[in-house]
Design a protein that fits this description.
The structure holds four protein chains of four kinds. Chain C has helices at about 5-25, 25-50, 55-85. Chain C is mainly α. The longest helix of chain C has about 30 residues, at about 55-85. The N and C termini of chain C lie far apart (about 50 Å). The chains are: A mainly alpha, B mainly alpha, C mainly alpha, D mainly alpha. Chain A: Keywords: Membrane, Transmembrane, Transmembrane helix.
Chain lengths: ~625, ~550, ~100, ~525
């Protein structure tokens, strides 16, 4: 990896982070004064950042540019610089983050219009954008870690935005804690790098990682993976992501669908030089991806909360991306392509869901939806396009990106390749099932609305972003895979694409996937399309469904394995500390006091007993002296 | 201006100020406050000037002053600072004025006058400056013990309901430690007199002499016990929750922010350079205490139902990190540990101050008595959140930098302990956010609830922190809580600013600290240049 | 009779005196026992003087007698005053001060 | 057998060296004459004047002897650094005690001493005398005799003189501890106990003297030294040492010979208690040091373990028993027992220096001075708190004193911190001065024990502080008397000394170290 110092416009790329950060600062410190125009400022900074990002990207032309800012912390042999690395990979992310981010800011103007705390909402969004950009622009692991936890904070603040709701507050805490578990992995990975290589910069680490022993590299890989799992809601740390839907819907769209949760993919892709050294770690990545994408898909099938369905679908889609990066060089580009397309259509879907909830008085229960197609045409169309893109309808974006991943899986050639491919295809079917179910429940059938609900189309400030994203989700795949191949753009990072000979012909894969998709969609129609939808979830259902509803008991496991024992341990320790440690000290004091009063009894007040004690003492003294001299 | 006796002035000014304030007639509390504020501000100014006069690249000890004090004992009244002591003086300079302002509206207990409070406060400041600035072990010891008296009166006269118990406990714990240390101090003197012909207490002279390993162990333990009680390390810690809980907020801030740092300061200033062999031999034992403390105290913090006890336990956990950094024997970790001492002073200081403001509003120390405050007091909640984030060492706050340096510097030398300590950051997140959620989030409830608008506050569940959350109040429920006043903003604002500033650009402090730490490392025979990459192709871990 | 006998006798007397202090209640008697101890010392001194053939010991005995006489004066005064108040010379009655 | 051939040769007497003793004893004799012939109404003033002149004169004449090193009066008296320092200390503390005796404005009846000791307590006459302003003044000559005896005690270079001095200092003390004006029963009881046990102890001392004489054929310390150097294991000699030691430790109130201390300290008139606590301790330890270092210095190994053990016992007993006391005088008594233990720690630090140079001697003497002044001051404060029947010595009465009279509380607080050995007070310097030689001599375990003991002891000093400062005043609290000039002087001197010896002890330490010499 050979970088060149920044020049011209790129030297100012730190403004990308500074702009939204400044926005956040102004909004938070400005107080009520900024209430009237706060949201405009917030949106403005992000739009500006997007424009700047575009210009920087054009100015890049395949170089890897290093921007040195200032010394963050240097002591001993440790030297942490605050520096940015602007290369094709980060450029892609910058555009995704600022682009989708800008759209969602616009959308939020409408969505949060009536919230008394809208100003703070935009402040937090800006904070997130800044942190996320730092995450993808950092040129060393510590700076990346700073952004990494920064987005965690933003996510915490936004999930808990309606903190009067205990559920929201708890979800936010849960998200932060489970992310912290991942962060420990990332931190330890950084420590190992420093201990072994004496540096934490991408350039330094990737340059010298080759000299390390296999075991060490694998350890680094696995620790990084732990971090990635935490941030991206991958198994075994996936449980927080669905709960995170407690946040306002734009947040779900931006943070918990399009950008932050894909940071894990970015981390692994960015650390490609490390993973290239360690097949073991890659295999684990594969496994995690495969397992997660199944868990997500299965859980998604049984949810009645529209946002929960989309959340599990996100879990599952990111599982695809992990699977892809797990495949190594063959998969990185595919993963990133899917990451981008997913960014478009999943953001679009969430915005659509938000629009629907707006219409339904913020109800998220799909069993009380139905027949909205006619009432909310724009939402229906945009949502529909996003849906098609997601399930991989031919020639929409999902079709290209997902197929690429499945092909890559097969291209492993070995048995595992087939297994993974099969899993991926099966999950594609499930995806089609639960998304179709969602569509039918929401837009199809006849209304099952609660009283006093009068659906209406959302204002244009909300619909426009939805339309843009819908267009994106239709075209992105074609553009990225066929028109302007992402492979070539990313070549400076992942090396020139070598035309891998396919084990299974792409056409076969595509046909197979499409068939499975149709099958899944059809099944969904059989289940919900034809019959009457009960207003409350049926109780007497098969264990499979029950398990799916409980998301395969992830929370149950966490609670019984960590939470309860933890609480028990805490209580026990509090007891130990008060009674044991402190009790020992107070006990000592008490003992002294007791012996004092007991000894005091010897002071009887009788002259003759005093005389006796003296005589005794004299005898002892004489005896002692004689003993010493004698022996 | 290098020859200006900064340190002497920094001791004399608050001492005189204390005398003046104490001499003020009863009822002149306002004047007392103003004098106290002026004096502490002056000390801050002096600290800043001293920092300017200090040359980071220069001699180990600078701004030195020395006059013979007790010739028969070979004791000099010798003052001087290296980077480590200097940053602590800066911390004192910052915290005391803040504390004065924070205590501005405090009302003293029955027939006590606030002027007494401020007199003790200033005297305490003088002692604290002395203890960090002393370069003569005897002088250090004298300040170390004398420091107890003002704090004893601060807790005992102005503290909470169980202040008598807390004050005596604090005093006796520290005194026991101090007396054991006294034995070691005398022992050190005797050794020096046998080594150098005539005994001395001068730190620089003592640093040179070779001490027999066995004796070193004994002397090390003598010092260590005192510092471990002061710091405090588990299991010598149980006095801190009591003192922290009962002390007035101002006292608590200085107690945890500065006083306890004398312990960790003692580790790196005295234990390591004076007894290098013993330090190396006994390091594992210390590290066990440190890491055990990190996890144990963190879990205990989660179990607290009392806000001030909670803060105290979080501090105990943080002291574990500092000790880890010091006894990892690398420049990075050592620098991190010293930086941690400063940052922790600021972060926990803010935490205590905010908690104090909360208690001032609700009149209760029980976590369970508060809830849903963020909705109505966003500034208060925001400051509290920042304090909590600093407590869990979130990047962007000052604590992150120090924690990173400590951990990344310790990992190469003591990987296992570091891994355990790193796991501690999960617990840190837990105990911080748990309390933040309980007090700030959720529906309005607790003692601040406006009469009739909601249910009565939950009775706090003793010991176990699982406070019974009251049923959400009806929508009409509102809290009787005003947001931060101008004065309170003047208290919290600077602290928040420092937390962010030092979190983004800590390098200046690091540059101050590193040379002293590097010197210490060479004293104990570690490579002052820092960790050398292992790059072993055999694959460690 | 060898000198040792005198020394032993003196030791016995001393012990008797000491034991007397422990067992007798009447302050006067206790005091007399103490006097007995002093006189046993006198015997010892004189014996040793005899043994070493110098006069010092015997002179010392005189010193002791004088001191003992002074002690008697002071002691009887004190005992007298307390006896007048309490109408009892038993040392066991005087134990208001204890613990 | 004395033959006419030997003419009597008068021993050489250096009057200069004897001057202090002559002055003090002279003053005492004059006092007796005044008592006998002086007109009653002016007697008090005169007696005070005489006693002060005597003690101060003794102090001055002692200071004139600085630097003297000689044995005089036929080897009976040693005038050396140590004895000069200690004699000066005793004379000074004695003068202060006399001032305490002379306080007239605290007790409504204008004196702490009974009007007529002969009148039975509780009798109608006694009750009427109680309020009468009549005072009796025999306490002054008695005290002066005691002071003289103490000075002689520390200068005695000869066991017999030591014994005589012991009696001269004890007998007056027995008497004056029975002279309390109020609570006379307690006072008399204290006198009886002190007298019986004291004479019991001196009987031991005397028997020890006899045995040593038998073993060495002499009672001169120098001769004993040579003898013990030769035959350190001679049973008679060792037994003698033991018994002598018992007698001295009784006076120094070292456990297990301390039993009398709490009772007598509590019962005696507070000024007398102060006098005993300060001066008797100095005298007793002066004698112990001289006996152990000069007479038995060469056979240190015989007594070292014993002193080691007894020091620990004394510290522990004093510290632990003090914890549960409810009477401040009793509490201070136990504290003095603990301090005796700390002093023995200094005695342990005998580096084997023949004439006491470079040993614990200097430190111990400094400790004696510091402790004497502090404890004297503490008892002086005790005399200030009064309620219906005299002094309010029960601790509960001290609650909230800081609120009633901040100055009194502050002064008492200072003394308590000094007794606890907190730095910047004389107590800390003293502790350091005695612990250093001990550690130097390898006795660091003893020092650690001592430090832990002082931590325990600190608890009961703290308890008083807590009462005075952190507790609310009791409703029926005592009144804080306004001290007259004498007590004020005492308090001023002791407070100043406590602070000065804590903050800038250099000069005095130097003095003590210079003075730390014995003539062998």
């Amino acid at each position: 990896m050979d970088t060149v110092p920044a020049d011209g416009l790129l030297a100012a790329s730190w403004l990308l982070i500074a702009l939204p950060l400044a926005g956040a600062a102004v909004l938070l410190l400005g107080g009520r004064r900024t209430d009237r125009w706060g949201h405009l400022l917030g949106t403005g900074t992000v739009v500006a950042a997007f424009v700047l990002g575009l210009l920087c990207t054009f100015a890049l032309d395949g170089r890897q540019v290093d921007v040195d800012l200032f010394t963050f912390a240097a002591t001993g042999s440790l030297d942490v610089q605050a520096g940015l690395l602007y290369d094709p990979l980060s450029a892609v992310f910058v555009l995704l983050i600022t682009g989708v981010g800008a759209l969602i800011h616009v959308y939020s103007i409408g969505y949060m219009a009536h919230d008394p705390r809208r100003r703070r909402f935009f402040a937090y969004l800006n904070l997130f954008i800044a942190a996320m950009l730092l995450l993808v622009l950092a040129d060393n692991f510590v700076a990346l870690y700073v952004g990494w936890e920064g987005v965690g904070l933003a996510s915490y603040l936004l999930i808990a935005f309606w903190h009067e709701r205990p559920s929201a507050a708890t979800a936010a805490k849960k998200a932060f804690i489970m992310n912290r578990v991942g962060d420990v992995g990332l931190a330890l990975a950084i420590f190992v790098m420093f201990a072994q290589l004496g540096t934490v910069t991408f350039e330094g680490v990737f340059g010298s990682v080759g000299v390390l022993a296999g075991g060490t590299v694998t350890a680094i890989g696995l620790l990084l993976l732990l971090g990635a799992c935490g941030k991206s809601g991958q198994f075994p740390l996936q449980a927080w992501l669905p709960d995170a839907m407690e946040g306002p819907t734009p947040v779900s769209a931006l943070i918990h669908a399009a950008t932050m949760v894909t940071a894990g993919v970015y981390l692994i892709a960015r650390s490609a030089p490390i993973y290239d050294q360690t097949p073991t770690a890659r295999a684990v990545v594969l496994a995690v991806g495969a397992v997660t994408l199944m868990i997500g898909a299965i859980a998604g099938c049984a949810q009645d909360d529209i946002k929960k369905v989309l959340a599990y679908s996100t879990v599952s889609q990111i599982g695809y991306m992990f699977l892809a990066v797990g495949l190594g060089p063959a998969g990185y580009v595919a993963a990133l392509a899917h990451l981008l397309t997913h960014g478009f259509f999943k953001a679009g879907l969430f915005l659509g869901a938000g629009s629907v909830m707006h219409a339904m008085n913020d109800s998220v229960d799909m069993r009380r939806y139905g027949g909205l197609a006619s009432k909310m045409k724009v939402t229906f169309v945009t949502f529909g396009l996003g849906y098609l893109a997601l399930i991989g309808f031919p020639f929409l974006s999902g079709f290209y990106s997902k197929d690429a991943i499945i092909e890559a899986a097969f291209d492993r050639g070995d048995g595992w390749g087939y297994v993974l491919g099969a899993v991926a295809i099966l999950a594609a079917g499930l995806t089609a099932f639960y998304m179709t179910r969602l569509m039918l429940l929401t837009f199809g059938g006849r209304p099952r609305w609660e009283d006093g609900v009068h659906p209406h189309e959302s204002p244009s400030v909300m619909t426009v972003p939805m339309i843009v994203l819908a267009v994106g989700s239709v075209l992105a795949g074609f553009l990225l895979v066929v028109a302007f191949p992402l492979e070539e753009w990313l070549a400076p990072v992942f090396g020139e694409p070598e035309g891998a000979e396919h084990v299974v012909a792409p056409l076969v894969v595509s046909v197979l996937v499409t068939l499975v998709m149709v099958l899944g969609a059809g099944t969904a129609w059989l289940f919900v399309g034809r019959r009457e939808v009960p207003l409350t979830a049926p109780v007497r259902v098969s264990p499979v469904v029950r398990a799916a509803r409980r998301a395969l008991y992830a929370d149950t496991v966490n609670e019984s394995l960590f939470m309860r024992p933890g609480q028990w341990l805490t209580r026990a320790l509090v007891f130990v500390d008060n009674r044991g440690v402190d009790g020992a000290v107070n006990g000592l004091a008490a003992t002294l006091g007791g012996s004092s009063s007991r000894l005091g009894r010897a002071q009887t007040g009788f002259v003759r007993s005093y005389a006796l004690s003296m005589l005794g003492g004299a005898v002892v003294v004489a005896g002692a002296l004689l003993a010493v001299t004698a022996g | 201006m290098n020859d200006f006796p900064f340190l002497l002035t920094m001791i004399a000014v608050p001492a005189v100020g204390a005398a003046v304030v104490a001499a003020l007639p009863r009822g002149r509390d306002v004047l007392a406050k103003q004098v106290a504020l002026g004096v502490s501000a002056l000390v801050f100014l002096l600290a800043v000037l001293a920092t300017i006069a200090f040359d980071a690249g220069g001699d180990r000890f600078q701004l030195t002053t020395s006059v013979s004090w007790i010739p028969d004992f070979g004791v000099d009244f010798a003052l001087g600072v290296d980077g480590i002591a200097l940053v602590m003086l800066l911390l004192i300079g910052v915290l005391v004025p803040v504390v004065v302002v924070a205590s501005w509206r405090d009302t003293p207990p029955a027939n006590r006058s606030m002027s007494t409070f401020f007199a003790w406060l200033l005297l305490l400041e003088a002692m604290m400056v002395g203890v960090f600035a002393a370069t003569d072990v005897f002088l250090f010891y004298v300040f170390f013990e004398a420091m107890l008296v003002p704090m004893y009166f601060l807790i005992g006269s102005f503290g909470g309901p169980r202040r008598q118990y807390a004050a005596v406990k604090f005093f006796l714990y520290s005194l026991v430690g101090g007396l054991v240390m006294l034995a070691a101090v005398i022992g050190l003197y005797v050794v020096s007199s046998s080594e150098l012909g005539e005994g001395t207490f001068a730190f620089d002279a003592l640093r040179q002499i070779e001490i027999d390993p066995g004796v070193q162990k004994l002397l090390f333990l003598g010092f260590f016990v005192a510092f471990a009680i002061k710091a405090p390390l588990v299991p010598f810690h149980t006095w801190l929750p009591d003192s922290g809980a009962e002390a007035p907020i101002g006292g608590a801030v200085l107690l945890v922010g500065v006083l306890d740092k004398v312990g960790t300061f003692g580790f790196i200033r005295y234990c390591l350079p004076l007894f290098p062999d013993a330090s190396r031999d006994l390091a594992p034992f210390v590290l066990v205490l440190a890491v055990a403390g990190i996890l144990y105290a963190a879990l205990l913090a989660m179990g607290q139902s009392d806000l001030k006890r909670w803060v105290s336990y979080t501090s105990i956990a943080h002291f574990g990190y500092i000790a880890l950094g010091i006894f990892a024997f690398t420049t990075e970790a050592g620098t991190g540990a010293v930086l941690y001492m400063v940052n922790h002073g600021i972060a926990t200081g803010l935490l205590f101050l905010i908690v104090g403001m909360l208690i001032a509003r609700g009149g209760s120390r029980q976590i369970a008595d508060y809830g849903g405050i963020a909705a109505q007091a966003p500034k208060l909640a925001g400051a509290f959140l920042i304090a909590c984030l600093a407590a869990l060492a979130l990047p962007g706050t000052n604590s992150f930098v120090s924690e990173l340096l400590v951990l990344i510097g310790s990992f190469p030398s003591v990987p296992v302990f570091t891994i355990l300590a790193t796991a501690g950051i999960i617990l840190a997140a837990l105990y911080s956010l748990l309390v933040y959620q309980r007090t700030m989030h959720g529906p309005p409830r607790g003692v601040l609830l406006e009469a009739g608008t909601g249910p009565t506050p939950a009775e706090p569940v003793g010991g176990s922190g699982t406070a019974t959350v009251t049923a959400p109040a009806p929508a009409a429920a509102r809290l009787r809580v005003r947001d931060l006043s101008r004065r309170e903003l003047a208290v919290a604002g600077p602290m928040v600013a420092l937390i962010i500033a030092l979190g983004v650009y800590p390098q200046p402090l690091i540059d101050l600290i590193e040379p002293a730490v590097a010197a210490t490392m060479s004293d104990i025979g570690a490579d002052p240049a820092g960790v050398q990459p292992a790059t072993d192709t055999e694959g460690t871990d | 009779m060898s000198l040792t006998h005198y020394l032993v006798l003196a030791a016995i007397l001393f012990t008797i005196g000491a034991v007397g202090v422990l067992v007798r209640r009447n302050a006067i008697v206790v005091f007399m026992c103490i006097e007995l101890m002093l006189n046993s010392v006198n015997l010892t001194l004189v014996t040793f003087a005899r043994a070493s053939g110098t006069l010092d010991g015997q002179i010392m005995a005189f010193f002791v007698m004088v001191v003992a006489a002074a002690e008697v004066v002071v002691g009887l005064a004190i005992i007298m005053s307390i006896y007048r108040t309490r109408r009892s010379a038993s040392v066991d009655d005087a134990n208001l001060l204890k613990y | 057998m004395l033959s006419a051939a030997d003419a009597i040769t008068a021993p050489s007497l250096s009057l200069g060296a004897l001057a202090p003793l002559l002055v003090v004893f002279g003053a005492a004799c004059i006092g007796v004459l005044v008592e006998a012939f002086g007109p009653r109404e002016r007697r008090h003033a005169v007696q005070v004047a005489v006693a002060l002149v005597g003690t101060v004169g003794g102090l001055v004449t002692t200071l004139l002897l600085v630097g003297e090193r000689q044995v005089t009066a036929g080897g009976a008296l040693a005038v050396d650094g140590a004895s000069v320092f200690l004699m000066a200390t005793i004379a000074g503390l004695g003068a202060l005690s006399v001032l305490l005796f002379a306080e007239r404005s605290l007790d409504p009846a204008r004196s702490a001493f009974v009007a007529a000791a002969a009148v039975p307590a509780g009798s109608p006459r006694d009750r009427e005398l109680l309020t009468a302003h009549r005072v009796q003044t025999e306490v002054y000559p008695l005290a002066t005799f005691a002071i003289g005896g103490m000075m002689l005690f520390v200068a005695a270079n000869d066991l017999l003189i030591m014994f005589v001095a012991l009696e001269v200092l004890s007998l007056p003390l027995y008497l004056i501890s029975g002279l309390a004006r109020r609570r006379r029963l307690l006072s008399q009881e204290a006198a009886v106990k002190y007298f019986l046990l004291g004479s019991f102890a001196s009987a031991f001392f005397l028997y020890g003297l006899a045995l040593v004489y038998g073993a060495t054929g002499s009672v001169r310390l120098a001769d004993i030294r040579t003898a013990s150097a030769a035959g350190g294991t001679d049973v008679l000699l060792v037994l003698g040492l033991g018994l002598l030691f018992v007698g001295l430790m009784f006076k120094a109130s070292v456990a297990p010979f301390h039993a009398w201390t709490p009772d007598v300290y509590q019962g005696a008139p507070t000024p007398v208690t102060a006098f005993m606590a300060a001066c008797t301790k100095v005298a007793a330890f002066g004698a112990i040091l001289r006996l152990l270092y000069v007479a038995f210095g060469t056979s240190e190994w015989t007594w070292r373990p014993l002193v080691y053990g007894i020091a620990i016992v004394s510290m522990v007993v004093g510290a632990v028993l003090g914890l549960t006391q409810t009477d401040i005088k009793r509490m201070l008594a136990y504290s003095s027992i603990a301090h005796a233990g700390f002093l023995l720690t200094g005695v342990i630090g005998y580096g084997g220096g023949a004439d006491g140079q470079g040993t614990g001697l200097g430190g111990t003497m400094f400790y004696l001075l510091a402790y004497g002044l502090t404890t004297l001051g503490a008892f002086a404060v005790v005399t200030l708190l009064r309620d219906g029947d005299g002094e309010a010595t029960h601790l509960s009465k001290w609650a909230g004193l800081a609120r009633r009279s901040p100055l009194t509380a502050a002064v008492m607080g200072l003394f308590l911190l000094a007794l606890a050995g907190i730095p910047l007070t004389s107590g800390f310097t003293g502790k350091f001065a005695v612990f250093r030689p001990a550690i130097d001599d390898g006795a660091w375990p003893l020092v650690v024990v001592a430090l832990l003991a002082s931590a325990v002891a600190a608890f009961f000093y703290l308890r008083v502080l807590v009462l005075m400062y952190f507790s609310e005043p009791a409703a029926d609290g005592p009144t804080v008397g306004v001290p007259g000039l004498p007590t004020t002087i005492v308090l001023a001197v002791t407070v100043t000394a406590t602070v000065v010896l804590g903050v800038v002890p250099g000069a005095v330490l130097d003095l003590a170290e210079q003075a730390a010499r014995f003539v062998g």
